[in-house]
Amino acid sequence: MIVKNIGLPSDPDDFEQQRDHSSYGVEARFYDQGHAHRLCNAGAQCPLPLCIESAKDGSLSICMTRLPGLSCAGGAGKAEVQAALSWLARLHSMYWGNERADDAVRTGLHAQGCYWNLDARRLELARTPTEGLEGRLRLAASAVHTRLKADSLQTICHGDPKDANIIGVGDGSVGFCDFQWTGKAPPTKDLAYCLACGADSLTFEEESCYLEHYHRELTICLNAQGDRVPNFDH
Q: What are 131-188's pLDDT values in tens digits?
């Protein structure tokens, strides 16, 4: 098993400490509200809760099962990346559309999901250099953030699908752990972060092959539950 004991922030006025502490509350609710069991029942492996305790002072304890296998930290191979994209397709399909995503948010998940959600990363944005490529990205960040929030394709995203959170559990399959940043967002957030962090440097053709694999897996899941499948070029 794995036990996370989360104490109180050392500085109650520190925004970053409060933000990160709050994210553990989201993870606790992810387990406590049955989302982990739903994922496992759908074939998307993740830890299962054993005990969730929340003290009156705000401290938390999360006790969960441990996934068998090894973390893909340091870079996942092609088979692991494809398996991770299949896992994400199962997650995304379960909460596909605003209605399902909003229902999940009401159970305590982030209203704006993902680790690099700009609403929660204004301090990081302010620290970004103002020159060169980073400067141009800084200028575009707010517009990109607004566009993603308005995207017609909304679901619940894992939120932090980096290689360190992907566990190779054998037989070519993977599981995911760490659900601190799980919440509502377009699936492209998970896909971009997974490919940027989980795979080695990719050519355009390799990226396209991975995205086509994800779309095939998503199509199977959405068709099975009677949902309209978005075009690959959407």
A: 999 999 999 999 999 999 999 999 999 999 999 999 998 778 999 999 999 999 999 9
165 with 43: CB under 8 angstroms?
A: no
Say how far apart CA 64 and CA 51 lie, in whole Å.
7
8 Å CB contact between 183 and 212: no
Strand spans (E) along 7-137: 49-54, 60-64, 70-71
**Cα atoms in the Cβ-side hemisphere of radius 13 Å centred on 68:** 5
Q: 210 has which bridge partners? A: none
For residue 144 the two structure tokens come to 């990109």
What value, to the nearest 5°, has the Cα angle with vertex 39 and ends 35 and 41? 115
Q: Residue 123 carries which side chain, given as an amino acid letter?
A: L
The answer to whether residue 31 scores a pLDDT higher than 80 is yes
Q: How many angstroms separate the first and last alpha carbons of the chain?
A: 41
Q: What is the 8-class DSSP label of residue 231?
A: P
Cα(14)–Cα(29) distance, integer angstroms:
23
Query: Can you spell out the DSSP letters for 50-70?
Result: EEEEE-TTS-EEEEE---SSE
pTM of the model: 0.93
- What are the beta bridge partners of residue 4? 62
Average of per-residue pLDDT across 28-55: 96
User: Which domains, and CATH codes, for the chain?
Assistant: 68-224 (3.90.1200.10)
For helices 187-198 and 78-94, the axis angle rounded to 10 degrees is: 160
- The one-letter code for the residue type at 115 is Y
Q: Which single residue is written with the structure tokens 């500085």?
A: 11
Nearest to 71 by CA among 180, 178, 166: 166
